[in-house]
Amino acid sequence: MTGLQRREQLITVARSVFAANGYEATSMEEIAQAAHVSKPVVYEHFGGKEAIYAVVVDREVQRLVSSITEALLTSTSPRQMAEQAALALLDFIETNSDGFRIMVRDAPPTSTSGTYWSVIGDVAVKVQAIVAKQFKESHYNPDWAPMYAQMLVGMVSQVGQWWLDVRKPDKYEVAAHLANLAWLGMRHLSHNPTLLTTPTKK
């Protein structure tokens, strides 16, 4: 193998090992054994476990961000936006299960970005602008947009984690139900939401 080919092989192998064991339970020795090379070869290309983990996660993050962003940009209505964003996430989970497991599991303590939750935060920012526009057109307070964007994206991301293991019903039905809940909820928002019971102040 050339140096570039060996690097790509190690990334592919490490992706599988991290997905199976998680970050903490994976060792450089284990990656080397799975790749059928000596441990110094892995260190030569990446320097340490955190470095190769960062490369693996970064690639998965870019794939997920690209697919969800494309879904948002090509949607022509809020309802379609909800459907396509949900379907993009579920499709990613179906075709990149190992990558998704890596993103939602443990990361190095020093890692502050490039994780699943940083991706969800980025998506929420994109959704926020769309929600704000819809709120203005429907005479709702546009200042609510950041909060509602977090709610919508959080709902989809949580369902995605659940679906990773159950895979029932299929992704199209799950996306339809997600869009149904989000869309009907957004269409019937109160202009002045209040709690049904008044909380007791302490």
TrEMBL record:
Transmembrane segments: none annotated. It comes from the Bacteria. Gene3D superfamilies: Tetracycline Repressor, domain 2 (1.10.357.10). Keywords: DNA-binding, Transcription, Transcription regulation. InterPro entries: DesT_TetR_C, DNA-bd_HTH_TetR-type_CS, Homeodomain-like_sf, HTH-type_TetR-like_transc_reg, HTH_TetR, Tet_transcr_reg_TetR-rel_C_sf. One of its GO terms (biological process) is negative regulation of DNA-templated transcription. GO terms for molecular function: DNA-binding transcription factor activity; transcription cis-regulatory region binding. Residues 27-46 bind DNA. Residues 4-64 form the HTH tetR-type domain. This is TetR/AcrR family transcriptional regulator.
